[in-house]
């Protein structure tokens, strides 16, 4: 089967590409000419160099594919326009190319984010029936893209998956915690009790593939997460154990977030580089939880996450060490 993957050079995208190749599929990777292709080097893939925001560069590239996995997106931008351009507008262009192809057997799988749904209330996991309440510009941009995909699903085959925080080999977000622990320090915001859902990248890729194969998945949204949520105290402890470290635990006062975010944004205006910490990030970090339920994916897709947090964090730590990141 021929498949197209956008965002194929990223952490999740490249892991998906490798899995597709192992299963014998022919993989076309949509990338920019400026993209870092480190994780795709030496893989037997076909490259299509294009900008998702340039409709003229998309024509014909989906005409002969049976699956389209859309992972490309923008997680850091200077302003709302940047988030909308990289997530919502790019998705609109790709959906238009699918319509123009005339392929009615093409399956479009959109990898969104839990950010589109928003945070969970204390003690309760989100499910797909809950009204979306994104609290960040990024989340709102992803939700608008979801709405466009659902509109497309009225005429074609489209499915949306929403992963929570993803970790594993090649990830650079949760890597920050590993790096801190390696230096002997574990930072916890407040009391560290905020709960989140996590998923190992290999389990996520399994869920993405199931969503692309199931007839029941048309027009559906699925949270793809591990079975259990964890708080940051437990996550930090597991990371420390995986690295055989006993770091100093430092609780960061919540009140420090806003002034630090203000300074980070000021620096962003001066340098033109998106701020690492901004008011949206602060708002996300102050929520009681980011927990979602995978019950629908289990029932309808047969999704079964197989990698425990302890196993996944241990394997991730080993990969970081092997690559010289730690």
Q: How would you sum up the global shape?
A: globular
Instruction: Work out the helicity level.
Output: 25-40%
Rounded average pLDDT:
90
Strand content: 15-25%
Structural class, judged by helices and strands?
Answer: alpha/beta
What is the CATH level 1 assignment of the domain at 2-171 and 197-225 and 292-306? Alpha Beta
Measure the end-to-end span: 39 Å
C-alpha-based Rg, rounded: 20 Å
CATH superfamily of the domain at 2-171 and 197-225 and 292-306: NAD(P)-binding Rossmann-like Domain
H/E series: EHEEEHEHEEHEEEHEEHEHHEHH
CATH structural fold name of the domain at 2-171 and 197-225 and 292-306? Rossmann fold
Number of strands: 14
Taking pLDDT < 50 over at least 5 consecutive residues as the criterion, the unreliable ranges are: none
CATH architecture assignment of the domain at 2-171 and 197-225 and 292-306: 3-Layer(aba) Sandwich
Please give the order of strands in the largest beta sheet. 3-2-1-4-5-6-11
Query: How would you sum up the major sheet?
Result: 7 strands, parallel
> How many H/I helical runs?
10
